[in-house]
Design a protein that fits this description.
With about 300 residues, the protein is mainly α. It has a single domain, classed as Formate dehydrogenase/DMSO reductase fold, CATH 1.20.1630.10. Helix content is about 70%, strand content about 0%. Helix 1 (about 5-30) packs across helix 10 (about 280-300).
């Protein structure tokens, strides 16, 4: 394989930054609840994270340190997905930096700029999957499921990172936020998409190389990483915790209405504690670990359709 850890990190950071921006965009629009506090942190970190990941990608191309001027050719080869990526990533980084700066300074941001950033963030998340899906020589990557999986994973990891950082940059109660519901929806969707993806590969729909790659993940060399880090730590553990905490949140909110003797402040404190508990922090971190493990598994388990012994 010619793609190694730099690509894994780039794919992870690209999705992470895009997901963080979309998290704050959703919170700003009220999609995560009337009083969600996630409407700022994602904007602060999105562009810098993607910029750093893009820098790693440039270095991995082989010319980043030696002949950077050769990369200019990427700007004119519009038949290449990587050229599309240059424009998408560049535009998102520029728009994201403006949005983050204006948000940090509490200055009004044109709605068109915010919306453009959201569209570019979605394109960035999808591009990290499309970059792999167009490689026909590697059946494990060559599927339309790949961009969908990467977008959902980007949203999940971006939500977790934004949730982790929000208490550091924005004080206040979470109020009526629906972050827990969003976590459950995204992790559940990711489980379903991964099952469809691996089921397609195991069935042989993408040929023997795809089957062998899936076998490496499910029962071979990378099985411990898959079942332990990705499925167990990155998906099942978070979804169980988020379901429990979401139920507790609903119960605490109802208690205020049904039991007048319970003070609103006490109930709010209970809800607040649920959002900032060490368990919740650990769960968000586990989602990030799972997202990184997913990229590593997809890169390292991929087998080409040719026999390496015949390549001169």
């Amino acid at each position: 394989m010619h793609w190694h850890w730099l690509i894994v990190i780039y794919l992870f950071l690209g999705g992470l930054g895009a997901g963080a921006y979309l998290t704050s965009f959703a919170a700003e629009k009220g999609w995560l609840g009337k009083k969600s506090r996630l409407n700022k942190a994602g904007y602060y970190i999105a562009a810098p994270i993607v910029a750093f990941g893009t820098l790693l990608l440039v270095f991995d191309l082989g010319q980043g340190l030696h002949k950077p001027w050769l990369l200019i050719r990427l700007l004119s080869n519009f038949s290449s997905v990587m050229t599309w990526g240059v424009y998408i990533l560049s535009a998102f980084i520029i728009v994201g930096l403006f949005k983050g700066y204006l948000t940090l300074r509490n200055k009004p941001v044109p709605q068109g700029l915010t919306l453009a950033g959201a569209i570019l963030a979605l394109a960035t998340g999808a591009y990290t999957g499309i970059l792999l899906a167009v490689v026909k020589a590697i059946p494990f990557w060559s599927t339309g499921i790949m961009p969908i999986l990467f977008v959902v994973s980007a949203l999940s990891t971006g939500l977790s990172l934004t949730s982790l950082l929000t208490p550091l940059v924005d004080e206040g109660d979470f109020g009526e936020g629906r972050e827990g519901e969003a976590h459950i929806l995204l992790v559940g969707a990711e489980l379903i998409i991964v099952a469809i993806f691996l089921g397609t590969m195991i069935s042989g729909a993408n040929g023997p190389a795809g089957q062998e790659s899936a076998a490496l993940v499910v029962s071979g060399t990378y099985a411990i990483i898959f079942w332990g880090c990705f499925i167990g730590l990155g998906l099942l553990f978070p979804v169980v915790v988020f379901i429990i905490q979401n139920l507790l949140f609903i119960q605490a909110a109802k208690q205020v209405v049904t039991e007048p003797s319970v003070k609103t402040g006490e109930s709010a404190a209970t809800i607040q504690k649920g959002h900032h508990s060490y368990l919740t922090i650990g769960t968000d971190i586990s989602v990030l670990i799972g997202g990184f493990a997913l990229r590593a598994l997809i890169i390292f388990a991929a087998l080409p359709i040719w026999d390496g012994q015949t390549i001169p």
